[in-house]
Write a structure and sequence with these properties.
single chain; 228 residues; alpha/beta; Zincin-like; 2 domains; four-stranded mixed β-sheet; 11% strand; Uncharacterised_BSP
Length: 228
């Protein structure tokens, strides 16, 4: 009698692009800090896998990105991403790296997760609001475990404020509707122009109703904890 088949615990086989590192100033303190704390190939691979894990399935994951180039240089700000359909370029500020101690490794890797999401996420044929684009990127960062100390769900008057504000809202939708809700939201942004009705399709309510419900739940939680 043959032995029972063993279940495979292997991770999905994602399409990993070629990675290129360019350091424009090796004498900069930030370059030394980066290279002492981060393995760029591993960090970028982790970021690609996080993007795939939270926005796609092995069957739907896009394969168009062939190269991601990480450029380390001095400039004001944190990071930004641009490029063609197949070649993406992420610029990371060495000045920001210097200012990210003492949690520099987690911060750099978290920023890279955010920026790599921009290489892969859909944008409703360039009509998606910037706040939702940035919120989806930080949603992936949140679920990849790179949460900066200052992040917390706060609510407010705008669901599409972007970044961590929108990320926590999307995370609430993910919990409310089940894993894959934000993946479905991203899929709706693939080949059609943006319309808030996508929230009705994904989460069963208008985005305004969802946001008001989310903010009310946050308020009640903070009141129970005596934080209001």
């Amino acid at each position: 009698m043959p032995p029972p088949a063993q279940q495979s615990n292997s991770l999905p086989h994602w399409n990993i692009p070629n990675f290129v590192l360019r350091v424009e100033d090796l004498d900069h303190e930030g370059a030394t800090i980066f290279l002492d704390n981060v393995k760029p190939k591993e960090a970028l691979k982790l970021a690609v896998e996080a993007s795939y894990t939270w926005l796609y399935t092995p069957l739907t994951a896009p394969k168009h990105v062939k190269t991601i180039t990480l450029v380390l240089r001095s400039f004001d700000g944190v990071a930004y991403t641009f490029g063609t359909h197949v070649d993406k370029e992420i610029h990371l500020s060495l000045d920001y790296v210097v200012g990210s101690a003492p949690r520099v490794k987690d911060e750099i890797e978290g920023v890279l997760v955010h920026e790599v999401v921009h290489c892969y996420q859909y944008n409703a044929l360039n009509t998606c609001p910037g706040g939702l684009i940035e919120g989806i990127a930080d949603f992936v960062r949140l679920n990849a475990g790179y949460v900066p100390p200052h992040w917390k769900p706060t609510g407010g008057d705008k669901w599409d404020k972007g970044y961590d504000t929108t990320a926590y809202f999307l995370n609430w939708i993910e919990r409310r509707c089940g894993r894959g809700a934000v993946r479905r939201l991203n899929a709706f942004l693939k080949d059609r122009k943006y319309d808030t009705k996508i929230f009705l399709a994904v989460a069963g309510d208008s985005v305004d109703v969802l946001w008001n419900t989310y903010c009310q739940e946050l308020k009640e939680q903070y009141e129970q904890k005596g934080l209001v």
